[in-house]
Structure formats: C-alpha cells, structure tokens
Design brief:
There is one protein chain. The protein is an alpha+beta fold and 518 residues long. The chain folds into 3 domains: 111 residues, Uridine Diphospho-n-acetylenolpyruvylglucosamine Reductase, domain 2 (2-Layer Sandwich); 125 residues, 2-Layer Sandwich (Uridine Diphospho-n-acetylenolpyruvylglucosamine Reductase, domain 3); 231 residues, Vanillyl-alcohol Oxidase, Chain A, domain 3 (3-Layer(aba) Sandwich), CATH 3.40.462. 31% of the residues lie in helices and 20% in strands. It has 14 helices and 21 strands. A hairpin with a 3-residue loop joins strand 19 and strand 20. Helix 1 runs antiparallel to helix 2 and helix 11 runs antiparallel to helix 12. The longest helix is centred in the last third of the chain and has 20 residues. It binds adenosine-5'-diphosphate. Adenosine-5'-diphosphate (ADP) binds next to strand 5, helix 4 and strand 12.
Length: 518
Amino acid sequence: ALASPLNGTRMLPAEMDRDVFAAAIKELRSIVGNDWVFADAQSTVSYNKSFIPDPEGLYLPSGAVAPASVEEVQAILKVANKYKLPMWPVSTGKNMGYGMATPASNGQMVLDLKRMNRIIEVDPDLGTALVEPGVTYQDMHDYLEKHNLPFWLDVPTVGPIVSMLGNTLERGVGYTPYGDHFMFQCGMEVVLPDGSILKTGMGSVKNSTTWQAFKWGYGPYLDGLFTQSNFGIVTKLGMWLMPKPPVYKPFMVRHPDADDIGKITDTIRPFRMNNLIPNGVLIMGAAYQLAMFHRREEFWSEEGSIPDDVVKKAAAKNGLGMWNTYFALYGTDEIIAATEPIIRGAFEASGGEVLTEEDMGDSPWFHHHATLMRGGMSLEEIGIVRWRGNGGGMVAFAPVAPAKGEEPKAQTVLAKEIMGKYNFDYAPAYAVGGRELHHIIFLMFDKSDPEQEKRAAQCMEEMITRFGEKGWCAYRSSISTMDLVADQYGDTNRQVNARLKRTLDPNNIIAPGKQGIG
Ligand code: ADP
C-alpha cells in the first residue's frame, strides 16, 4: 500500500493504519510531554519546508517529536520499534540544499534533537569540545567569547543556525585550516536502534580522560559508520578547536575567464599538499557570488540560462572575476611575510590578481569570505534562495573532482551544458580539500512554479547520471537523490551497508532510505 495523507502537508508511513499511528503518538506524548510532539498541520510546518524539488510530494513527515535527554531518545526508539514507526533524526534540520529536516520517504517522524543543546565540556588546555546535537555554531561562538577562550570555530556557510554535530555527521566542510569537520571530530556517543549506548574510541574505556583527545581507540574505527548513515542516533560529539592565531590575513584572487578553473586548481594543489595554504579554500563562481546579494532579474530576464558574458559584466561591475578564490594565511607576521610572496607569485603566474583587505575592504563578498576563513558568523549565503522567482527553491549537487585542472574544467563544461538544456543558471563553488575539490552546484529555481520544480528534478537526475558515467560522484546528496547516488557507488557497497542495517536496526526504524540504506 502507498502512504496515505494525514492532510496536505503530512503523510502516514506506508502501510501504517491511522489507529496504530494514533497509539504511537499517544505513547510519544507520555515520554516527552504534549508540547513536544507535533502531529497536526500547524505545528509541523517548520518540518516540511525542504526547498528541494519534490514535484510528487514524496518527502513529507508524519510529524515530529523533540526529546530532552538521552533517556527520552531511548524511550522513543522503544516506541518506534514497537509500532514500526520510522524516525528521521535531525539536530537543527538546516541541511540547506539537501532537504532541510524532511525525511527520505513519506511518513517518517522527525526526531528533532534541538532541545538537547548543552555544551558539555570545552577543555581549555586541549582545545576540545563535547557537544549535544542542538548546539549551533553560534552557541559555541558565544560560549568561547563569554569564557574568553583562545579558540576559533570552523563554520559551514550558514553556520550561525546550524548544528555542529549535524554538519559533522553529514561530513560538511568549512574554510579555516580545520575545514574538514569529520577529520577534526573525536569521539561520539550513539544511541543504537535497540536503545543501547555506544561511546566510540576512548569513550568506552572506564575512567578514560582521553575521549576527546585520541580518535582511533582500539579495534575497528566505528565513528565513520555513524556519519551519513542511519545506524544510530548520535547524542554527543567531540570536536577539536583551532588555537586562535596571532595574525590572520585573508586573500582573494580574481581570475577573468570561465575556463581559468583549471589553472586555479593546478596552482592551489601543491600549496594544499605541502600546507603552505592551510585552509579550506573556496573558488567561487561569479554567478554564485552575484546570487548572494542580487536577484536574477537585475541582470537577466529571459527564461534560458544567464549567459557567461552577462555574468562576466555584472561581476566586473561588482569587483568580481569569473572565479574568485579565497584563501588565508595564519600565524605570525614573520611566517606570513615568508609565505605570501611564494603563493602570490604562483597565482600571478596563473593570470590571477591577488587582492587583500586593502584592495577589497568595501566588498561584501570579501567581507563574507574573510569572516568564514576565521570561523566567524555570517548568514549571507542564504540570499541565494532568492535568486530566481519568489518560491525559494534550491537543491545542491556536489560531485567530487581530483585537484587536477583538467577535471574541474571538464566538470564545469558538462554542468553548464546540462543546466543550459534545462534553462537553469550554472552557479558553482569549488571547495578545495587536501587533494580534491567538492564541486558545489546549486540549482536555484522558483518552487512556486510547478513546471520549474519538475524541470529542476529532471535536471538534477540528468546531472547526477551523466557525471556518474564519467566516474564523478557526489560526496553528499539531497534526500531526493539518495538512491540514485548510492547506486553509483556499486552493488557491494550497497549490500554491505544493507547487512549492517539489518543487523543494527532489524525493524528499519531509523531514517530508512538515508544514503540509500534501509
Ligand atoms: P544541520 O542543521 O546541522 O545542517 P541537520 O540537523 O539537518 O544538520 O542534520 C543533517 C542530517 O544529518 C540529518 O538529515 C540526519 O540524516 C543526520 N543527523 C543529524 N543529526 C543526527 C543525529 N543526532 N544522529 C543521527 N543522524 C543525524
């Protein structure tokens, strides 16, 4: 049987009777109290706003439940197992471009962990933190300021409202030297589907004082199993914080042409490998940058994709190139004075203009990226949902490329071709890791226009499929394309994940469909 609607904005899980659902809700209310179960149209509004294309309405929750403690999470899972009511955990549910808080299939109940928002510990000597799911980057930022602690955070693009734990579990990235969040994660507490509690790494050792200091523990390394997965509910997460450097200097490098992406990549690669450029570099496409602070109609009113020459002209007017690369140096004046000329020389040889605060101080783009690269709070990128129309539609496709110029160059050509075919604007960013690039392609559309919404879904599918044929796959995906991407990682990978799922979660109650599992 198909899932049946509870009303226009909520769905029952497939094959669940209304009575069974009502009985489960009653038990959930007795665990968390009436106020923290959301099971009517009004109170679930904030949980079904996904921004992604969902022309057929396949990703609607049945409601939400918000526990306040680990014990309540355990009790909720007991009810979920009893009634086979699937639970979709979120920490803050701000997974922008990937579905926000909405589940990978209709009828799952959002398990909203926002009330579990304690900063349990920050060790001032080791620079380690232990946090609950509801702790946002803003919360931690405020905590560090209040206690005058000499550490920086590493935030993703809409950091202030986003959970540290949620972003790290999705293997999100930021833009300081601690940009790869999972790399700087250390220790987890997980409630398994049967209610038992696992502490990973040193956390399982009685009286251990090294839970947040040593990642690997003993035996198989388990933390990875709980990232981008549905094997448990993570209720605590350890993170490492970056010591605040005495001096920080942000740079922007402006390149004029769309196909400069190859040269830029080849210039950055050696510096990321030898760590002369220590941070998570962003190579921002002009259209993406424009979308942060402008609306499409200011530059282009046609249905078809905005042409390169129009983007280029609008960018130039705003002090931007077709590609704008943001990196930063950290340390002392002496250290920066020694490395800056080496990097500057290499970028200049690639045809880039290397710019600093002095040159770009008034630019809101420079300001935004300079803020990100020191782990500061900025919400500016939310602006991109307003680029086209009034419906606020946005979905991300994020294929990975090795940091070798020809590959991102070819990815850019392919993405532009496919998006052009569907009349969408190619607005890219490349986030540079150690030896690869996350190519972040935001597809911005008007979600109030059903035809455009359908076209956006088709465009995503073709992009994922055609990139996949070349061996380029996403590092993360929207809930609407999880199966498609999981298929590209092959049968054996899917089967191993399925076996783990059956073993750990035989009733398939945690986030079925997440990353194509369960
Ligand atoms: P953020 O708001 O930080 O971007 P979300 O809270 O939306 O992140 O979480 C992103 C995804 O990570 C969720 O859709 C869910 O699949 C997973 N997730 C989040 N929190 C947890 C958790 N505590 N335990 C297990 N999975 C989680």
